[in-house]
Amino acid sequence: MKIRDVMTKDVHLARPADTIQDVASRMAKGGFGFVPVADGDQLIGTITDRDIVVRALATGAASSASVVEFITRDPQTVLDTDDLKVVLDLMGTKQIRRAPVVDKHGRVVGVVSLGDLSTRVKEKYAGETLESISR
Asked: Higher model confidence: residue 119 or residue 98?
């Protein structure tokens, strides 16, 4: 099974100049808490709802602050053509819950999350990965 078979394809990207209020509003409307941040076609980081709360709001940032100030840079990515084991190993080893999925040109084409794995994967490794991430 390939990563493209389990990833979420409807990805909402943020841009560096987007405000944290704008990104938080899109998260609330869309019911998701993770957004890749891209400058043009280049992935430069990710932001989560927790990042917005802990890194931005808790430190007194204005809701008009640029999202780029609070992103996690150099995110762990996987290729859409990689075998599923690659993302399972990455998530288990790095204890991450979501990873941007890129194509061979480095463009974001999806996101794979614990939710995707728990609902779409029936391999024995999925349970082991979920357990190691939760530790």
From this structure: 98
